[in-house]
Amino acid sequence: MPPQAVQAAFVYLAAVSVASxxxxxxxxxPVHSMLWVLALFLHVAGIFLLLxxxxxxxxxxxxxxxxxxxxxLFVVMLLDLPDEEARPRFGKHWPFxxxxxxxxxxxxxxxxxAPTNALGAGGATDSQAPDDAALGSVAAIGAExxxxxxxxxxxxxxxxxxxxxxAVVLARRRATAP
Amino acid sequence: MSDAQAQLLVMFIKAAAIYGGLLGxxxxxxxxxxxxxxxxxYRIGPNRVGPWGLLQPLAxxxxxxxxxxxxxxxxxxxxxxxxxxxxxxxxxxxxxxxxIGGEFQLFGVTTQLSITNLDIGALYVLAIGGxxxxxxxxxxxxxxSKYSLLxxxxxxxxxxxxxxxxxxxxxxxxxxxGSLDLLQIVEGQKGTFLGFLPDWNLxxxxxxxxxxxxxxxxxxxxxxxxxxxxxxxxxxxxxTEYSSMKFALFFLGEYCAMIVMACLTVTLFLxxxxxxxxxxxxxxxxxxxxxxxxxxxxxxxxWVRWTLPRFRFDQLMHLGWKVFLPLSLFNLFVTGAVISx
Lengths: 178, 341
Description:
The complex is a heterodimer. By secondary structure, chain A is an all-alpha fold.
């Protein structure tokens, strides 16, 4: 693709991502929010594609849009929606949450503009990023995931396992109560 | 005509041909379903419109267009309209990566008989195909009807459960062929196995094949797993409230999904467009071989529907989680062990 086309595609994807993220938190109807999140996931997958990370893009759609969001929808569909819509859209602590979000955004911005960070690694602005196309391939990610990062990867799976066990325990307790 | 123009033209012709073929097939499938069911039940089936009722799908289409569109009270208008599209579009998108035939020349451009070929073709099919469940679940919810909601919930629970078996089945194929590229997977199945069998993955992965085929039935909500629209319990399931072309879109999506699943089964397990014992067959013979193999699986969908009774929903979930998931994990483990030894 010519660079202008890539640029235009990125601007479109980024703008729609931000807009749908905003819609997702401001809609009153939770199902509508979910659909905006779906739009967000699909556009983020598009950004991954632009970066040459085909595998990440596919997994983004497969896991987040195809599985996790479906389970959310499942729960939300069984809510009492008129009751849900009547409640105030934001909880009392929203200024605090906004402050946390803003400070993370500031941190990201700082990490991006800083030439080197405290750990001594290069910031994203210096062009020592390794060569693109091969980096996003399935083979490259697989080799990294099961080679250099095998231990962190397995630890992350433990977190998921804990969540599953937690869900089973919660469901069980309710079932045995008279 | 310059080279770039020729390539663009070839691209358009291929896309038009493949999508025309897909939609034509989906229309014919509705007729085939009624004809085969009629023969199995000692009836005649539709025979009034055109020879052997061949124009029946056309007549049905015209009828759908002229039917009144009903939107139920309290339905969520936008989502109600969006759902049929979300059911039909993903199934149609996935066909883009299926390699239907080998290389051929058109206007001086050498090309493959598939719309495009991705390095991650198998993942693409799973990712985009998995979005089809949104049509079902949103259609069920937006109709504001308890039958629709229950149908949508059942269908989505079922599709998610069996997607696991489907993915693990594909993974074991990916493991033995070493690529996610569907064309590479087909290439790896040319030649012979044990000297006399065609080198199809079917013979190397019989367990994965059985699990995969059964999972495709559950994924497409077909008998004996059609709980989404189980008439005695749920009227029409998630599309109870749909009428006119919106209903037709759901139907179209369902038949397109069946066709895509049949194509995928053929590509992964039956050597795709590879012709057994004839390595360098011309592309149109390969396309014919592919269609014949896919046609068999489409017939299987109909054959099973009019032969087997329906499961119960708890049996379905039991089968999916307690039988299929462990079996497919076991199969993947054995595959990995054999490869690494």
